[in-house]
Amino acid sequence: MSLPPGFLDELRTRTSIVQVVGRKVIWDMRKSNQGKGDMWAPCPFHQEKSASFHVDDRKGYYYCFGCHAKGDALSFVRETENVGFMEAVEILAREAGLSMPARDPRAQEKSDHRAQLAEVMEAAVQHYRLMLSTAAGQGARDYLAGRKLGAEAQKRFEIGFAPDQRQGLLQALTAKGFSPELIVEAGLCAKPDDGGAPYDRFRGRIIFPIRDGRGRAISLGGRAMDPNARAKYLNGPETALFDKGRSLYNHGPAREACGKSAALVVCEGYMDVIAMVEAGFGGAVAPLGTAVTEDQLRLLWRIHDEPIIALDGDTAGMRAALRVIDLALPLLEAGKALRFAVMPPGLDPDDLIKAQGVEAMARVLAEAKPMVSLLWQREIEGKVFDSPERRAALDKSLRAAIKRIEDPSIRAHYGEEIKRLRWELFGASRGGAQGGPAGNRRSDFVPGARGAGKRRFVSPNALPETRATLLAAAGDDVSETLREAMILGICARHPALIAQFEAQLEQIALRDALHDRLRHLMLAHAAAPADVIEEKLQALAGADLEKLLALPHLRSAPPIVKRDDTELAQMCLAEEFAKLAAVRAMREEIADAVEDLEGLADEGVTWRLAQAASLRHKAENSKLEDNSDTGEDRAALSARLQAMIDGEIWRKKH
Question: Which GO cellular component terms are attached (predicted)?
């Protein structure tokens, strides 16, 4: 199957080689410059420890200074996936949302036709540039001068003028040898319904050429000189070259500016973009006569990880911002975000720069709000929440919005931020202390994970030896402290398991200072061989380790005593982590439920408490003796307990 060159060019334009390569390597962020698309990593084609594999996202190529492997995204997929050229094209096309072209023996002919359309479009740009300098363009020049657009700005953006003539462009281009059919197909002229001669689409308008990311002229935009014109702005129609939902005005120059650390700012129109660039904000772009589309949003994220949506401060601008939010929520992923810079009422970026200067525009961009703030503002704007039903309605709408976020990590962080904003709105009416969310009002609790602390009640008349016991020291949390000790004891006696349970060991909240010291030592040497870990623990914390292992419940514990039974130790360690996580998660659910019941009728409270209680019973009933008949082998049970931890089955699933 032969592919038109235009298809491969489009595929390369839409494909980020950093994203393609990033699936196979771990970037060295100390050496890489993500803003410029300049990334380094250990080479995936040969064994090495240093980062000698270089990827240039702007040029679309990779090169290894060690083994000298080089190529583009297609060759990388071919080499790493062990597929042929056409299979690699299909993989990248599927990821980029491109349909593979049908098998067509006339593919080369079609490609040549696109090249002809680009040629006639370039000729039109030059013709309109010439018309601006003629006597007919005097009014347009005066208008541009009034908008503070000098000759340099006009040259940079190739601004032109279309005189109010019915067939001025048609005659000029046909005189250069272009056929009327080709001119019409490029969107420069239109045919009347009665079948007469084609006429110019742009008449009496200032012309703004639209170029793709590679710099090809693909369409035109025109601003009417006549204030009574039916359309103030007119864009060319969609053609084989121009898809307005996949294009951005000033795409190429903005991408280059963002590679040099400029912010990517999305404006509403041509004049806003030009004013921003002239003021020094080179990363300005604009959609082309439509609201931001999903394809444009993905294109923006390819240019910059956090585009700023700069919209007018009027009602229409806010509506546009909210449409972008609804579009972006399902597409969010770690490292890809949006911020919103809201202009002062009645001003667009061009007006703001002219009225208040570049500093005012920079200040607005610096104060751009994260998307969650506008989402919250939309839900509370103009509403009064003076009843439980109204507050419940707010919660319902916010839950529905957050549920649309597919990335679980981002969804969780949005939930936390919404909870914080909700407390700021309702906190004062819930009888809580001033100065923080309800979840932070437990200042008399033992430090640790939220809701994990308990009051310690010890009689003032207790003997010193009584005060020193584990029961008195741990208070109501004695069972959790015993489990913490068991976890660390098993790790100390079976150090080979530390690497396997490294994530759980790192995340667990330890209240005892001795436990915490031992945990950090274990994590610091988790990658070392087992015998080395034992030596390090003995050398650096021998006394603490002896104190831990001397605890009565550890001295006789099978996984501690049977040092050769790694399988038993692995199973018991997974069991202890599961039980500890279940108990603490239940406490968090209860704490959250108490908060919810203080001022919110949450239909999920009962379900959440039942899940937490069920999990605790399940964990408590799973205690095993070494010689017991469990009905399933140790490996299967260990895997099931590990799945309980990884899946956080005590938490409510949305």
Answer: cytoplasm; DNA-directed RNA polymerase complex; primosome complex
